[in-house]
């Protein structure tokens, strides 16, 4: 049996990938409904907490992926590679852990 994916805010199941917003908060990747994310998270003082999935998350991961390569060819600190790789891995983790289980 497929385990249900429950919203970390209202504890109701999330049915559609469209409804899902994954957010890195309090040292854990958490699934939320899109509406719960918009209503409660922003109100809770977590302004600036970007969702990992969705368009902005994909865009961030793409930019991080490109930036991660820069220190290999320039004098930029290799910290950029580490941070960029972590962002890309977090994006992949969100997909494997949550998004893959939900229908479109
Ligand atoms: Zn919810």
Summarize the structure in words.
- With 104 residues, the protein is mainly α.
- The chain has one domain (17-101).
- It contains three helices and two strands.
- It has helices at residues 34-43, 54-73, 79-97; strands spanning 20-25, 28-33.
- It has a two-stranded antiparallel ribbon with strand order 1-2.
- Helix 2 (54-73) packs antiparallel against helix 3 (79-97).
- The longest helix is centred in the middle third of the chain and has 20 residues, at 54-73.
- The mean pLDDT is 88.
- The chain crosses the membrane at residues 52-70, 76-96.
Which characteristics define this entry?
single chain, 104 residues, mainly alpha, 3 helices, 2 strands, elongated
Task: Give a short synopsis of this structure.
The protein is mostly helical. It is built from three helices and two strands; from the N terminus they run E-E-H-H-H.
The span between the termini is: 19 Å
| Arithmetic mean of pLDDT | 88
**Rg, please?**
15 Å
* Total individual domains: 1
Which small-molecule ligands are present, each listed once?
Answer: zinc ion
Class by helix and strand content? mainly alpha
Shape annotation: elongated
Taking pLDDT < 50 over at least 5 consecutive residues as the criterion, the unreliable ranges are none
Task: Encode the helix/strand succession as letters.
Answer: EEHHH
Main β-sheet: number of strands, strand sense, barrel status? 2 strands, antiparallel
- As a percent range, the share of strand residues is 5-15%
Order of strands, widest sheet: 1-2
Helix content: 40-55%
Number of helices: 3
Number of strands: 2
Protein name: Permease
Transmembrane segments: 52-70, 76-96
Keywords: Membrane, Transmembrane, Transmembrane helix
